[in-house]
Specification:
By secondary structure, the chain is mainly α. The protein has two domains: 1-183, fold of a uncharacterized protein from magnetospirillum magneticum, CATH 1.10.3540; 184-247, Arc Repressor Mutant, subunit A (Orthogonal Bundle), CATH 1.10.10. Helix content is 55%, strand content 12%. The strands form three sheets. The chain has a three-stranded antiparallel beta sheet. Strands 5-8-7 form a three-stranded antiparallel beta sheet. A two-stranded parallel ribbon has the order 4-6. Helix 5 (92-106) packs across helix 6. The longest helix is centred in the middle third of the chain and has 17 residues, at 108-124. The radius of gyration is 18 Å and the shape is globular. The chain starts with 15 loop residues before the first helix and ends with a strand.
Length: 249
């Protein structure tokens, strides 16, 4: 469906509060240059302190923040706009789902790492960083940049609270487990998940049970009705007990 699924892009450790601040700046009506300057101030004493590289980690993080919530790819503009409206109205405890969904739509690498983590958590109740990295390297190629990016994404999950460290170094357990019961948020998150895939179609069951959405829980019995109300999703009957969800063209 898109070339983003073959790219890494998300190669830094990004805290949830930095994405929250970015959306606050957007919702306050700031333009891109003002948001860039504000993020520079925000990260000045937190990232690349004293660094003199032309493009240090701070600038890379700001590029990620801007691409997620300011200048997302054109095909994600409607998703971004409705995501900002969700942020405006949802309680802060549920906004993490919006940031998660938008990051995975813009950077499917985030969803790929999450998928590995989610599968391991379901199988054995824990996820070892070494196992996750091995599976990501198989998918994206044996490159140091892939391994480093996967490590930083995992550390981001810990920062966000969706993973917690165990007594064993490099082994994580489930952290946050949030029930998504708001209809608008649930259908939006499914839409974001579709954008993170290489195809714009998936079964409803696969989407609701997607390991890349491991921090979130859904109520399957009401999801078909919720999704049918979305202007950008279409639900198609495949069989007696199976439905597909498609991104409208």
């Amino acid at each position: 469906m898109n070339s983003r699924t073959n790219q890494i892009g998300f190669s830094q450790r990004v805290r949830l509060e930095w994405l929250e601040q970015t959306t606050n700046l957007v919702l306050a009506g700031n333009d891109r240059s003002a948001i860039f300057a504000a993020l520079q101030d925000l990260l000045q004493d937190k990232v690349s302190v004293g660094g003199e590289a032309e493009r240090g980690n701070r600038e890379k993080i700001i590029s990620i923040l801007l691409k997620v919530w300011v200048n997302a790819p054109g095909e994600l503009e409607a998703l971004r706009a409705s995501g900002l409206e969700l942020v405006r109205h949802l309680p802060r405890t549920h906004q993490i789902a919006v940031h998660w969904g938008m990051v995975m739509a813009v950077y499917p690498f985030w969803a790929a790492v999450a998928g590995c983590v989610g599968r391991l958590l379901k199988l054995q109740g824990s996820a070892a960083a070494a196992h996750v990295q091995r599976r990501i390297l198989e998918q994206y190629g044996e490159r140091q940049t892939v391994s480093r990016a996967a490590r930083r994404v995992l550390r981001s999950y810990v920062d966000w609270g969706v993973l917690k460290e165990t007594g064993t170094k490099g082994v994580y357990r489930q952290g946050l487990s949030l029930m998504v019961d708001d209809p608008g948020l649930a259908s939006w998150l499914v839409e974001a998940s579709l954008h993170a895939r290489s195809s714009d179609t998936a079964t409803l069951k696969a989407l609701l049970e997607s390991p890349s959405l491991f921090p979130f829980l859904f109520q399957p019995e009401s999801m078909k009705r919720m999704l049918s109300a979305s202007p950008r999703l279409e639900v198609l009957r495949l069989g007696l007990d199976e439905d597909a969800v498609v991104l409208r063209k």
